[in-house]
Design goal:
Layout lengths: L2 H5 L2 E5 L3 H13 L3 E5 L2 H11 L3 E5 L7 H11 L4 E6 L4 H10 L3 E4 L4 H95 L5 H28 L7 E3 L1 H11 L1 H6 L3 E6 L6 E3 L1 H18 L5 E8 L3 E7 L28 H11 L3 E8 L2 E9 L4
Parallel strand pairs: 1-2, 1-3, 3-4, 4-5, 7-9
Antiparallel strand pairs: 6-8, 9-10, 10-12, 11-12
Helix pairs in contact: 3-4, 6-7, 7-11, 8-10, 10-11
Length: about 400
């Protein structure tokens, strides 16, 4: 050990015998240590607190607070200060007691200079190793905590990416369904409407013949069913491709208010409460008003159908610099989990009557405007649809 290194080491000597203090101080200073002395335990504890010495040489027998009590106090309050005990009683019982209390070593009085120096060097070396080990353990715990945090962040990112990939795949599948539907529906509509037109003409010819009340009733029923088939075909075409449209500046809040007014009789009959929460009214957007109306007509119709009397129909409207966010909520029984992947599919319905085209039409319109629609939440307390529409076409 070099003198420069030793000078950085602080040693405290606590002994009530001044001769021991003086002689030991001289020995240690000559070896390059920075030495502090105290003749009682209380003064020694104050020095330990102020100077944080690496090592304390402590007498076992002292007036007031004895050496054993002082040893325990130093180890409790200042664990980085190691202790070598001086004792005039050399028996195994005392040695065991001292080591259990935290002493790093002990010396029997009287001791020789060389033995003292070697014991000090040995304890300081052990101290350095143990403190380094503690630092390494702390560093290890810190690194393990960092690794755990990184793993958690990585898992979160993987989960987010997986969910985003699943959403993207679902959107691709949905787009493919709509594309296939468009191709099929165009052909179907053409093929079905031709015979429907012929049937209509023949029925009209029959109707213009002799009047028989019973036959006329059958004819009216046939014409009614033809109109119903034609209506289904129109809905199918609306879901699969964009009909004629007219783009103008449309205020979404005004469209919502207008559709709610149309549904006012049904709302009043079912005693439904309408809760409008327009946080920020968005500016007008370029769109076809009738298409935007279809979005909310279908969503409100579904909500009113699902809700019992005294339900709550919620409409929330907000926007930022990029998009408009609309939430339509109800207090119905919710959508069964197994049905969620299919609710936007054409012809999918759980109603006893209905074509199952409403949400398919909504999806087609929302995608036309580069927007997104999703079920934000559903359960026993109701369902919330979230629609996001860009403020300007991208």
């Amino acid at each position: 050990m070099t003198e420069i290194t030793q000078k950085s080491r602080k040693i405290l000597i606590i002994d009530d015998e001044k001769v021991i203090l003086d002689l030991t101080s001289i020995i240690l200073r000559n070896r390059g240590y920075q030495v502090f002395t105290a003749q009682d335990a209380m003064a020694g504890l104050e020095i330990v607190e102020a100077q944080q010495p690496e090592l304390a040489l402590l007498d076992y027998m002292m007036p007031g607070m004895d050496g054993l009590t002082t040893l325990r106090e130093i180890r409790r309050r200042f664990p980085d200060t190691y202790v070598i005990m001086f004792t005039g009683k050399g028996n195994e019982e005392i040695a065991v007691e001292l080591m259990k209390a935290g002493a790093s070593d002990y010396l029997l009085k009287p001791f020789n200079n060389q033995d003292l120096a070697e014991r000090i060097e040995n304890v300081l070396h052990i101290r350095e190793i143990e403190i380094n080990n503690r630092e390494l353990l702390r560093e290890r715990e810190h690194l393990l905590a960092e690794i755990e945090a990184w793993n958690h962040e990585l898992e979160t990112r993987v989960q987010e990416k997986s969910e985003a990939l699943q959403r993207a795949q679902a959107e691709i599948v949905q787009a493919e369904k709509l594309a296939t539907l468009g191709y099929l529906s165009a052909g179907m509509a053409h093929e079905i409407r031709n015979p429907l037109n012929s049937i209509t003409l023949f029925v009209q010819l029959i109707k213009s013949g002799p009047e028989e009340p019973e036959k006329l009733e059958y004819i009216d029923k046939i014409l009614k069913e033809i109109d119903r088939i034609d209506s289904i075909l129109r809905k199918l075409l609306d879901a699969s491709k964009r009909p004629r449209y007219e783009i103008r500046e449309v205020r979404v809040d005004q469209v919502i208010d207008g559709i709610l007014d149309i549904f006012k009789p049904q709302i009043e009959v079912k005693r439904v409460t309408v809760e409008r929460r327009y946080h920020r009214v968005p500016p007008a957007v370029p769109a076809d008003a009738s298409e935007i109306e279809q979005i909310f007509t279908n969503l409100f119709l579904n909500a009113l159908h699902e809700m019992p009397e005294n339900g709550i129909l919620g409409v929330e409207l907000d926007h930022d610099d990029h998009e408009i966010t609309i939430r339509v909520s109800d207090t119905g029984p919710g959508i069964p989990v197994e049905n969620l992947p299919n609710i936007f599919d054409p012809f999918f319905t759980t109603k006893s009557s209905g074509t199952g085209m409403g949400l398919a039409v909504v999806l087609r319109i929302v995608k036309t405007y580069k927007g997104k629609i999703e079920v934000e939440k559903t359960g026993e307390t109701g369902t919330t649809f979230r629609i996001r529409l860009p403020l300007r076409a991208t």
